[in-house]
Amino acid sequence: MPESESPKRYEEVEQILDRLATAVEEITKEVGTTRQRAKEAESECSNLQKIMSGSEGQPSVNLDERINRVAADNQRLRDTLGRARDKAERLRNRLAVVEDEV
After folding, report:
1. CA of 22: how far to CAs of 10, 14, 64, 68, in Å?
2. Cβ–Cβ < 8 Å for 21, 98
3. How many domains does the chain have?
4. Is the pTM of this model over 0.85?
5. Predicted confidence band at 1 (pLDDT cuts at 50, 70, 90)?
6. Which residue from 5, 24, 56, 85 has the fewest beta carbons nearer than 10 Å?
7. Range of the domain at 42
């Protein structure tokens, strides 16, 4: 590679690394938020199940619906975490390739 291309290539690599670092930071924030929401959803689901098991007779339809919504939201959050982990892994692999090229 001619010497004149070396600084340009270095700048390109730096830009890629900056974008990757930003993407990883955003994913990290999203994972943290998603974990918190999942924790809250699990806590609410647990509380609702305790209320239902301690009540006399059949639980109200509203509680069943609410538990189902919480469970569905919890599953969506788990799916989001899985996708975020996959994306972080792909970014980590890309970063390793870029670092090898430098």
Report:
1. 18, 12, 41, 36
2. no
3. 1
4. no
5. very low
6. 56
7. 5-101
E runs forming strands in the chain: none
pLDDT for 36-86, tens place per residue? 888 888 888 888 777 777 655 555 557 778 888 888 888 888 898 888 888
- Alpha-carbon separation of residue 55 from 4, 39, 50 (angstroms): 77, 25, 9
Exposure pattern of 15-31 as b/e (b: 16+ CB <10 Å)?
ebeeeeeebeeebeebb
Residue 31 and residue 36: Cα distance in Å, rounded?
Answer: 9
Six token digits for residue 69:
């919504």
Classify burial at 91, counting beta carbons within 10 Å of its beta carbon; exposed 0-12, middle 13-18, buried 19 or more.
Answer: middle
How does residue 95 score in pLDDT terms, banded at 50, 70 and 90?
Answer: confident
Residue bearing tokens 């974990």? 35
Amino acid at 52: M
Top pLDDT among 50 and 34 is at 34
